[in-house]
Structures are given as structure tokens and as C-alpha cells.
Design brief:
The protein has 199 residues and is mainly α. The chain is built from eight helices and no strands.
Amino acid sequence: MSDPQQQTLNLPSLVFVVILVGLSIRYFFFSPSSATDTRSSNRGRGADPAQVDQVLQMFPQLNRRDIQWDLQRNGGSVQATTERVLGGRGLERPPPSFQPAQPPPSSTPTRPAPPPPKSSHPDLITRYNLASRISAASQSEGAAPEEEEEVSKPQATWSQSKAERQALLQKRREDMVLAARRKMEQRERERAKGKAKEV
């Protein structure tokens, strides 16, 4: 019944043949075409607007259309485009049939916004014109504790006049600024004394 010359395929050799055929089909039919597809899709889609802007910032004298054409031709390599410009060769003019994608309208300006102007009054003393009160307070050193007591005692009644209320609030604000300055100066003197003792 069984013929000794008849060969049988066992299960491991069958699995090996199926895997070998699958890999060879994949290698011959799918690998090269997918690589060429990605290369052709990179060339066909045009240049990235961020790359065009990057080159345009380095070389503002160049035309946006020329940059897009060169980036599309070299596969989007900013380095190759900049080397071509720096090498003195310049960029080739695109053919009339080349229609680049227009950059999306940017909601933010391309140039950074200038920093906000610095205030003409750098500190509260200058802002509220308290320099004269500081010089008067420094001349009469004994008056400082009395002024602090005045700040700590708020007046209990409000005036009916708007001008009087405004003057009262302005005086309180000035007194608070001056009291804070005196406290800061006191701390600085204490620190200076502490450093002098350490030395």
C-alpha cells in the first residue's frame, strides 16, 4: 500500500515553504512600489509653508514661488536650497505651469510684536510724586513713627463731598506707599548691619 518512493510533505516543511513564498511575494511586489510612492508623493505635494518661510527669513530677497519650486524639486530639503543660494548658483525660475499652493493666511504677524513700552514712572514714589515727602521725612527722622500711627488710624466718617473723599483716599495711598518704603529701608539697614557684624 505504501510506496517507498512516494515522498510526503510534513507539517514543518509545509509551514517553511508558505512563509518563504509570502516573504518573496512581499519583497518583489510591495516593497519597491511603496518606496517610489512615498518619494513621488513628496515631490507631488509641494513644499511645506513652514520650510518656505524658513528659507524666506534667511533670504528675504528671494521670491516665494522660486523657493517653493526648488523645495519641491529637491524633496523639501531646506539645506539643499540654502546651499544652492549660498553657492551663488541662485534658484531656477519655475515653469509657467507651476502653480504653488498659497500659504494659509496667518492670524499672527510674522514679526514678533514689540515689547510693551516701559513705564515712564518706574516706581511708586515717582508715579505719585512723593519725592518731596521722602526728603521732608528724611530731614525729620522723629516724625516717622507719628506718620505710621496716622496711617494705622483710619477716619471713621466719610465726607459727603466727592473731592474730599478723593483727597482722603489719595492721602491714605501716599501714606501706605511711604510706610512700605520706610519698612523696606529699615530691613535693608538691618541686613547691612548683619553683614557688617559677620565681616
